[in-house]
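Recall that a protein's primary structure is simply its ordered list of amino acids. Everything else, from secondary elements to tertiary packing, is in principle encoded there. The following example makes that idea concrete.
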Amino acid sequence: MTSLKNFSKGKFIPAIIFFSGLLFCHITGNRGVYPIDSFSHFDSGFRILNGEHPFKDYWIVSGFFVDYFQSLIFLFFGVSWQSYILNASILNGFISTLVYYLFTRLGLGLKSSFFYSICFALLAYPSSGTPFVDHHSTFLSLISVIFLILAIKTKKLYFWFLIPFFLFLSFLSKQVPATYIFLSVILIISFHLLHQTRKESFKIISILFFSSLFSIIFLIIFFKIVSIDYKDFIIQYILYPSTIGNERYNAINYDLKNVFYNFKFIYLALFFLLYFTFKNFKKEFFYRGIDFKISLICILIFISFAQHIIVTKNQIFIFFLIPLFLGLAHLQIKNNDNLKKFFNYLLIIFCVLATLKYHLRFNVDRKFHELNGVQFSNAVSSSKLSKKLSGLKWISPRKNTKYETLLEVNELNAYKTILLKDKSKKIIITNYSLFSVLLNENVSSYSRWFPGDNSAFPIKGNIFFNKFSNFISSTFINRNIDSIYLLPDVDEKNLTDYINSNCLIKKELDYKIIKFDIDKNCKNFALD
């Protein structure tokens, strides 16, 4: 009875939500792999622990913060798959708990806040389960938006300070949607300040300025400590990605499917919120109130996230907006509304159905990682590869039988055996970014990803092509590399397009592995 009373008073609810968010993500993170995405921060977190850093030791265009957060988790919990997926799980638990706090702080009842927050936790990071730059950037920017709402609602100054800090972390995870949300936040803050006193506006602007300055100074000091050249950061993280963005914007297709059909249930949830909010439009100074500002914020964050999905053409993962918008809509159903009970039940039923729909699609079927066509009964234990991967049920896209899955794992074991025999200084070019951990030595390559397009590093014709060629050359020299192993999942042009062919001695090994020995007599590896 005491436990039930404590629950009804909300004492245990934040902890329950946090650990539920942790558990949901933990389960999906152990359910299959999509190698290029699932392992994207596995080896990079390990190599940071061993003294290597992004921008100077490997080329990256996003995920700076995610890599370092992963290295901290490895430091405290050890290097393993289970500690790897903690990266996503912790963020999922944290933001789900923050959503609950937001609902209760705005006046939603404990039970309703708990319900919508649990639905949010189920649809948020579990769609990936493993650390992913788009998810990190999305949820860190959403955290800043929640702090913005709380700052407006409570007038607490520390909430204003936290807004730029989390936006900064979001940008250091991925440039978009962080930039879109930054612009949205600027608009909302500007609108809010129009109706504040000069003294109050000055106070808010000062806090935002000092928080932004603190974040920038912290980054500069950090770069100084780990010896990262800020010029490399600017080229790899800002200038080169802008060339990718320009190409994608030119190819955007704003058709009915992309703009409306793909987001139809989010539109419906947003409609409920706007409907209940604008029922009070006739109230004096309505546009100055928190309800109007929340609705404006929700419109802008939806546009920002949807625009990001349309531009990147990634799987849609923003269905967590449905319980968020519905919870905020629930708040707007006023006590004097004759249909209050009907609308309450309507929102809850809609939320249950939408949550179940997208839970089945993304968490059970694992659509985000292209696993919706596999039979999970054919998955095998990843401990066959290494005890460090214990708990992960290995199955990857386009593996239709257990035989194919076992064959993939056995091939990876064969690669590991061949690589263990070579004691020389080597790197491995592959999208299975786990061999540094498996071999317990840094064999990771000069890029985190090899996606086959220009989304990870410059290809021929890009203005930064020669810069990347020289970066690879300096990597070979600085690390005193003797050989490069190219695994079958990556085309050899990812090496030969950038390095003088006279400096490479090609050998074909078993299991379709290609080995390139480096001619140490070469004076210049890079292409002129």
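The longest strand covers residues 504-508. The CA atoms of residues 172 and 498 lie 27 Å apart.
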